[in-house]
Amino acid sequence: MATLPILQHEEKIIQTVDHNPVTVIIGETGSGKSTQLSQILHRRGYSTSGKIAVTQPRRVAAVSVARRVAHELGVQLGEEVGYAIRFEDRTSHNTRIKYLTDGVLLRESLANPELSEYSVIILDEAHERSLNTDILMGLMKRLVKVRNSDLKVLITSATLDGNKVSKFFTDCPVLTIPGKMYPVEILYSKERPSSYIESSLKTALDIHVRDPEGDILIFMTGQDDIEKLVSKLEDKVRALEEGSCMDAIILPLHGSLPPELQVRVFSPPPPNCRRIIVATNIAETSLTVDGVVYVIDSGYVKQRQYNPSAGMYSLDVVQISKVQANQRAGRAGRTRPGKCYRLYPSRVYNDEFLDATVPEIQRSSLAGSVLYLKSLDLPDIDILKFDFLDPPSSESLEDALKQLYLIDAIDENGAITSIGRKMAELPLEPSLSRTLMEANNYGCISEALTVAAMLSAETALLSAPGRSNTEKKRKHQISNLPDGSGLGDHIQLLQIYECWDQNDYDIGWCKDNGLQVRGMLFVRDVRKQLSQIMQKIAKGPLDIRANGKGEEFRRGYRNLRKALCVGYANQLAERKMHHNGYRTLGFQAQVVQVHPSSVLKADDLGKFPDYVVYHELIATPRPYMRNVCSVEMRWVVPVINKLKTLDVYKLSGGVEHVEKETERNLPDLPKKDVEVAAAGDRESRIQAARERFLARKGKK
DNA sequence: GAGATTCGA
């Protein structure tokens, strides 16, 4: 352990932390920052007045790093060194060093905004810029002032732009600690290939027949491309003349692969055999594959992004950033010097790639985060001026405010309501937490809990791919579902879970019905957690047992659907007159279709229900509503009335913000236009600002 | 009549 580079910098680190409330530490992979930093501070007495918290963006990382540190200190895990992740808290009153996911720390800060049990908070892997890390960075900036130098904050990262973060934390010091990496030779293509599958195929084969041993890791964008490339590689490798070169095994690697197939990449290849691993970006950060010497980088990644003006998500193939490209290349230099083949010219890398990946906070719906921040009740913070390292667009913040207003989480002035306060306690999207609140009044809390839990895990439910179990098939496979699923997907998800409940949570039942066991067990955990929180909020026992063909079933799930209509007030759609297309009822109407995977049934005339709520809009590339539920017009009316009262200006707290928007979004407008925009009344000012903003975006 | 990169409370 004495060889870890970070230990040679111990004195320097301690000196800096002693004299500064915030320190940024840039430590390349292999520097030992995740395991050593906490131990150094512990050794030097920083854990006597409080605990040392170390956040991780991923649960597995929190657990495995905690385990290693406990081992290095020779203590039992859960004693001096422990961890906390969702559903699992392995800490005790003895714990001095606590590893946790950043989501858990955010939850803790809801109960105790000053996080007073900690004397040190280390935000690790900050360069990944997860939504939660970004919010924590904003909170830390405030907390070091409030806690008046009895808190030390360290931001650590592999490749984060240290100067930017340092500037954010009022010019705090930046320490750089070298890593232990082998050199990686970068080879660029002369031009972008017309097909990166073909190009990867050719490059991989060239390496295989020509270069010495060492595994090949190929980065592709998704499951489809991976499967295509894997089968082509298998054909080509099989066709190679026997004995002309070593053997090769081809392994796909992506998130929807069942765990037992995923772990194959951790077993070393047999002698005289090369592994060719074809992976998504899961191999960029989440999984580390040993033995990789050659990396082939397509230069693309799939990214989910949210469009706040349409309220719609899309999954797009986009160019990676320089940070990602370097991360990928680094995967070749972990055990010895390696090579990285970039399937794009250096010009593309230099001129087209962004320096860093667009942070998640600028790509997601912010309703949940805004509600969370509002519920913290920080006296000195106005949410629209919350100090983010990279602020989200004001459009996105306004979208969040509108959503929250429509579901009664904030009032017309943007202040959090008592309902909103309770909603923030629940680890759910606001639409679902609002549904739970309402269901509690209507006596269908048990059903609503199940729906919320099922939707939290929906993608995890599908059976493993490759066994031709498509979603549609799944829906038809479930045997003996009571009638009623024609009302929509929410109801069917409910019935699936209740069926499982009646089968005593039997694992075999899941397998027989094409459901992922892991996913269903997760649903059960989530449901239990939500039940506990709801009981706390309701200040009394609730009937939360799953109850199959109970009252709700007999009444056509009317109460549940009514509750959903309130929770999804922002996600309503009305069927168009003469066909089965829908128009969303929001601030901006969209024409959308029911997703083909839906179980929603048409009536005898072939018509869908007049009104539905949807869980999500997804552009793929046509706009679809995914997971819909039939509702009744008279439940919709109050929502439409509320929509009319919506005043973004008031919600976002006044003129100042509108000016800020003008300033931030329209820096290159001719001065005259800004003056015109500023001269009108406030509505037309907002409108003018928005139009110009959109026009400018369109041009880009 | 489509198609799930990846994390997380």
UniProtKB/TrEMBL annotation:
Sorted UniProt keywords: ATP-binding, Helicase, Hydrolase, mRNA processing, mRNA splicing, Nucleotide-binding, Spliceosome
One GO cellular component term: spliceosomal complex
Enzyme's top EC category: hydrolase
Catalytic reaction(s) noted: ATP + H2O = ADP + phosphate + H(+)
Helicase ATP-binding domain span: 14-178
InterPro entries registered for this protein in UniProt: AAA+_ATPase, DEAD-box_helicase_OB_fold, DEAD/DEAH_box_helicase_dom, DNA/RNA_helicase_DEAH_CS, HA2_WH, Helicase-assoc_dom, Helicase_ATP-bd, Helicase_C-like
One Pfam family recorded for the sequence: DEAD
Domain Helicase C-terminal: from-to ranges: 200-377
UniProt key word Nucleotide-binding: yes
UniProt keyword Cytoplasm, yes or no: no
An annotated Gene Ontology molecular function: hydrolase activity
UniProt-listed PROSITE patterns: DEAH_ATP_HELICASE (PS00690), HELICASE_ATP_BIND_1 (PS51192), HELICASE_CTER (PS51194)
Enzyme Commission number(s) of this protein: 3.6.4.13
PANTHER family: ATP-DEPENDENT RNA HELICASE, PRE-MRNA-SPLICING FACTOR ATP-DEPENDENT RNA HELICASE DEAH4-RELATED
Protein name: RNA helicase
Organism whose genome encodes this protein: Crotalaria pallida (Smooth rattlebox)
Lineage, broadest ranks: Eukaryota, Viridiplantae, Streptophyta, Embryophyta, Tracheophyta
